[in-house]
């Protein structure tokens, strides 16, 4: 595997379910990000991790819970989501925070029913 | 309130001609700007960037122009090729330490034969 991978690519879940999104980067980067892209809206930054430490939480509801066990892996744990949380969730990584190019994964298309 | 705006949702250009994609921003703290390209079912990929100390940056067929007084930037693609057909996102960074990119909603470019 190369670059940034995300699993699953598609996920349908009910509002009472608990699921997790996984992101893995194979680039030796130290920073990882979660973004959300809703229909007709711009990409919104959700969380930033640098060297496994969360450095940014962009006022994200607690039903989204990130986890970064090491610099290569990032998870987004989902529980009791709402239909308006249906969106494309993108993971990205970069060499560090600051003026470094971010490399994106293909995203997970989440549908909450 | 959107701080980065791409007012043209779509653009169609003939192969060989120039494509011009526009982006406006409102936050005067933004000092670094990027363009990303996105193909269907893939994550955005970095294309070109410009710092606010410059007014032009060129990379092959791609040139980004920045007009700070107008808070406007544009991406020129010359000559346009069918493989350039994608969604183009403008993004801006306010120079903080967390690499918080603010994205526009994107412009879908179609290059026709």
Describe the structure.
The complex is a heterodimer of chains A (113) and B (113). By secondary structure, chain A is mostly beta strands. Chain A contains no helices and eleven strands. The radius of gyration of chain A is 13 Å and the shape is globular. Chain B has 113 residues and is mainly β. In chain B, strand 4 (32-38) and strand 5 form a beta hairpin. Chain B contains no helices and eleven strands. The mean pLDDT of chain B is 94. In chain B, the strands form two sheets. In chain B, strands 2, 4, 5, 9, 10 and 11 form a six-stranded mixed sheet that branches. In chain B, strands 1-3-8-7-6 form a five-stranded antiparallel sheet, with no helix packed on it. Chains A and B meet through strand 5, strand 9 and strand 10 of A and strand 4, strand 5, strand 9 and strand 10 of B.
Q: Kindly, what is the distance between the CA atoms of the first and last residues of chain B, rounded to a whole number of angstroms?
A: 38 Å
H/E element order of chain A: EEEEEEEEEEE
Euclidean distance between termini CA atoms of chain A: 32 Å
The coarse silhouette of chain A is globular
Structural class by secondary-structure content of chain A: mainly beta
Task: List its traits.
heterodimer, A: 113 residues, seven-stranded mixed beta sheet, globular, B: 113 residues, six-stranded mixed beta sheet, five-stranded antiparallel beta sheet, 0% helix
SSE layout:
The complex is a heterodimer of chains A (113) and B (113).
Chain A: E1 4-7, E2 10-13, E3 18-25, E4 31-37, E5 44-50, E6 53-57, E7 64-70, E8 73-79, E9 87-94, E10 103-104, E11 108-112
Parallel strand pairs in A: 2-11
Antiparallel strand pairs in A: 1-3, 3-8, 4-5, 4-9, 5-6, 7-8, 9-10, 9-11
Chain B: E1 4-5, E2 10-14, E3 19-25, E4 32-38, E5 45-51, E6 56-59, E7 62-67, E8 72-77, E9 86-93, E10 101-103, E11 107-112
């Amino acid at each position: 595997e190369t670059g940034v991978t995300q699993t699953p690519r598609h996920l349908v879940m009910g509002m009472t379910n608990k699921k997790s999104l996984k992101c893995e980067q194979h680039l030796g980067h130290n920073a990882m990000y979660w973004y959300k892209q809703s229909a007709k809206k711009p990409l919104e930054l959700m969380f930033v991790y640098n060297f496994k430490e969360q450095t940014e939480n962009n006022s994200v509801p607690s039903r989204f819970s990130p986890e970064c066990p090491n610099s290569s892996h990032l998870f987004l744990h989902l529980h009791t989501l709402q239909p308006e949380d249906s969106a494309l969730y993108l993971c990205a990584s970069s060499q560090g925070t600051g003026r470094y190019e971010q490399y994106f994964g293909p995203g997970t298309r989440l549908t909450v029913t | 309130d959107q701080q980065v705006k791409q007012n043209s949702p779509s653009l169609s250009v003939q192969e060989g001609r120039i494509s011009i994609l526009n982006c406006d921003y409102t936050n005067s703290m933004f000092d670094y700007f990027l363009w990303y390209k996105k193909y269907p079912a893939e994550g955005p990929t970095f294309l070109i960037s410009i710092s606010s100390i410059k007014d032009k940056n060129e990379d092959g067929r791609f040139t980004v122009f920045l007009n700070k007084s107008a808070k406007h930037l544009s991406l020129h693609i010359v000559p346009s090729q069918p493989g350039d057909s994608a969604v183009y996102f403008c993004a801006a960074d306010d120079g903080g330490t967390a690499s918080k990119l603010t994205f526009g909603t994107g412009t879908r470019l179609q290059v026709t034969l």
